[in-house]
Structure formats: structure tokens, C-alpha cells
Amino acid sequence: MWWVSVTMLVLAVTVSGKTKEKVCDKGWECSNSKYCCNDTITDFFQVYQFENLFAKRNSPVAHAVGFWNYQAFITAAALFEPLGFGTTGGKQMQMKEVAAFFGHVGSKTSCGFGVATGGPLAWGLCYNREMSPSQSYCDPNYLYPCTPGVDYYGRGALPVYWNYNYGIIGDGIKVDLLNHPEYLEQNATLAFQAAIWRWMTPMKKKQPSAHDVFVGNWKPTKNDTLSKRLPGFGATMNVLYGDLICGKGFPDEMNNIISHYQYYLDLMGVGRQFSGDNLDCAEQEPFNPSSKSASS
After folding, report:
1. List the disulfide bonds (predicted).
2. pTM of the shown model
3. For 123-156, what is each residue's pLDDT tens digit?
């Protein structure tokens, strides 16, 4: 009968509706993704907050005066917001992820010191390259051989070292960094793009990214739990630096990264009381032991 057909049609629409994921568009910053249905980064992270986080980056003694800016970050972030960068979860989690990402960036690009004006934490984004490289960071590699005359010292927002890391990240962002690693010290948008790609991308199959372990996408296996690897900010250090920092108690470098993260939480209005569980990686076994890291 006709009412049976209508009922079946309604049911079909309902069932098909359950299988179709809702996606949203927010213009140039975020489009065609479920994550775009949340706030975007410009909704909660404004220019003045960027300036507060990196208050000393353009001081005369800084080494990258005029290089880093808010627009470069937002332009780079827009490529990853549809994938969940700064758009995963509720507003507090979104703000925490931006603070966590910048916690790493700020600590790794700081030229601050204990008696620095404004305190050492205010000096993030002071560098865009390693100032006095001790080596060329060229390692024999079949897939990503060194380009003659090119040095692969640390460059960028999450400094990239070694030819193979420049090759891998260059493939990831579709830029020839293997032959032109200098791009990361010449273009702030590319420098942020490479850093966010590193944050969002696992270095090995069946491993999480820093993004995954922070926002709760990653569920530890029994082996992870036995290795004391648990979701939280501490695991982001494990993903990015492995045993350069983790599993060694509380070295200054690890404490410095945590301090930047909490400092930025305060400046963004979230508050360090919401830093989350598993803040450090003092007792975590590394995901990838004893290897040269993409960020150092």
C-alpha cells in the first residue's frame, strides 16, 4: 500500500543519514570536513594572543626579527584544520592543542635564558635556524641522498635535522626540501607547514602522531601501557623526540617544553590547571628508540 512505501522511504532516508558523515564549510580556513563544524582556529586564537605568546620574537637581539607572524601560522594551519588540527573536540581541547603545539615550537626556537628580559618563556620564535651548526647532518641514505654542498642543520618551527627528514617532510608537504632545505628559514608559512605536518603525521605505520596522542584519538595497547606510554602532553614529546628526552627522569629540556606549554595555556586563557593527565614522559619507553629525530 502507498503508506507502506512512504514508511519504507522514510526508513531508507533515516538509515542512509546515519551512514553519511556531516561535513561543514568555513570558507578558506576549513572546508569539506567534519572538523569544520567546530570552531576554527581564528575563532579562538587572535593576533594579540600570538603576540603575547611570542612577545620578544622581534626584539633587536632576536635572530629572526620580522620572520614569524600570525598570518603565516594561520595560512599553514588552514591546510590541516580539515584534518583536525586545532579543530578536534570542544573549544577547550582545540585551544589546548594550539598551546601544546606552540609549547614545542616555543621551547625549540627560544633564545631566552634565565635572566632574559620578560623571562625565558617569552622568547619563543627567536630562531628560524640553528645558529652555529656543528656538522652538516648528512647521512648516507638511498631514498634521500644528500645534495652536494647542502647542509641539513636545524631549520623551521619544529627544527628539522638530517637529509632523510628533510626528504620525508618535503614529500609530505610537496616541497623539495631535500634540495632546498633553506626554504624553511626563508618562508615562515612553509616553516609552520612543515612543523604542523610533523605534529599531525606518524613517523611509522601503526604508531600515533603527536596530534593523536594529545587529543585522544590514540588508544594505548597493552604493550603501550606496560611501557608507561599514555595519552597526554607527555606522549607528544615521546612521538617527537623519543629517547632524546623521554625515559630519563626530568631533564631540563623536558621541563622546559612542559613549562612553555603551561605558560601558553595561561596566556590563551585556558589555565595550566587544565594541562591534562600524563604531562611528562619521564618514565615512558620511547616509541622509536635510539634514532636521529626529525626534531632535536
Report:
1. 138-146, 246-281
2. 0.91
3. 999 999 999 999 999 999 999 999 999 999 999 9
